[in-house]
Amino acid sequence: MEHVGQSIIPGLPDDLALRCLAKMSHGYHGMLETVSRSWRDLIRSPEYANFKARQGRCGDWLFVLTEGSSNEWVAYDPEADRWHPIPKIPIGHVDCQHVGFSCVSVYNMFFVIGGSYLPHNPAFPHQRPFITNDVVHFDPYKKQWTRMASMRTPRSNFACSVVSGKVYVAGGHNLSCTRGLALAEVYDPMTDKWEELPPLSNPQMDCLGLSYKGKFYILSDQVGLTDQRTFEVFSPSNRTWCIVDDIWPFSRAMQFAVQVIGDDRVYTVVDWGDSFIRTRDTEQGEWYDVGSVPPVVLSDHSRPMEAFGYGFAALRDELYILGGKVLKWEESGGGRFDIVKLGLVRVCNPSVTPLGWRETRPMCGSARGSIVGCASLEENSSFPSKGMYC
User: Fold this and answer.
1) Element at 55 (helix H, strand E)
2) 76: number of Cβ within 10 Å
3) How far separated are the first and last CA of the chain, in Å rounded?
4) 76, 85 Cβ separation under 8 angstroms
5) Rounded to whole angstroms, how far apart are CA atoms 5 and 11?
6) Which of 127, 139, 177, 165 shows the shortest CA–CA distance to 59?
7) Which of 84-93, 138-147, 254-263 has the largest mean confidence?
8) Tens of pLDDT, residues 214-223
9) Residues 6+ apart with CB under 8 A from 329
10) Among 158, 66, 161, 149, CA closest to 104
């Protein structure tokens, strides 16, 4: 029986025991809570969260939201090789699917921004989506969501990225501007304030944001097509937009995403039948293949299959291919197939060729299938804590 005043770790002062347990990353917390009631209470306590925050020990996180997960995110801890659910976002429309949002990490904080809520009520099949300007922040120390200052403009399917510690958004659409927005704004997480930016030269919708060499790039759904040979770039230093030539070897109509490792190592997935990892030679300005994404092999199916609808993320120096679906054809050749949702997670280091792929622990619970959103958070103890912890 546990008793009041029992040491956290017998034989150690409690302050030293706290330091020891604080070294354990978030993927181990569920296991630690099963050791004893005192450990459970400590792991869930403000003192534990505050101590880790002061030390900047939030750990590395990979956040993923999949279809059919009732808007519940899951998180991966690469140190522990474990997935675990995080609390549901406490605001929004609980009976609606959240899509078209952006998610980014900055200063050891994870943000989910804007997007659309799609009603699921079959009695009202033609309900219009609700487009929001909400911003919520997940605290990796307290494992809690907090509502932050809202964007000035509600928007969905917009460009968003972090440049020099600030979150830039531009374009997208809402119910007032269904053909695209030219409005742009920037968020400072240290002051929790949004500031209006000069507008884009042309409205953009269904666009993607990219931080590259200290600038904010807007990649539209037409990039890579023959009738669209330019895109817009914002320079925070002089607060101006400029139009530059198209350098991207893909279009939004295909399965793709872009990840930047460091400040200038750009990687993308190009899905033209087979899936390839491509990178850009920053000196020559040319794109080339690094290697292919291996096909999916199921234990009950003889043929390898190409996945679709998967997520693409970077964490530290590695690239992740997450979830997705495959079409599992009948072996008899009858022309019928099943759609199989995947919880599969594959990882490679793109700087090492040929690419050596490995599988990590699959996503947990109902987290499988098409990826709605994913983003990584890399621990950095030098980030300011905003004075939130004392």
Assistant:
1) helix 46-55
2) 28
3) 34
4) no
5) 13
6) 139
7) 138-147
8) 999 998 765 4
9) 303, 335, 336, 337
10) 161
**Mean pLDDT for all residues in the chain:** 87
- What are the helix (H) ranges across the chain? 14-22, 29-33, 37-43, 46-55
Residue type, 254: M
Domain ranges of the chain: 1-57, 59-88+295-380, 89-253
Summarize pLDDT for 118-168 with one digit per residue, the tens. 887 666 667 788 999 999 999 999 999 999 999 999 999 999 999 999 999
Specify the DSSP element, H or E, that contains 85.
Answer: strand 82-85
pLDDT in tens, 301-339: 878 899 999 999 999 999 999 999 999 887 666 668 889
Q: Which residues of 206-218 are buried (b: 16+ CB within 10 A; e: fewer)?
A: bbbbbbbeebbbb
Tell the CATH topology of 1-57.
Answer: Monooxygenase (1.20.1280)
Q: Any idea which fold 89-253 has? A: Neuraminidase (2.120.10)
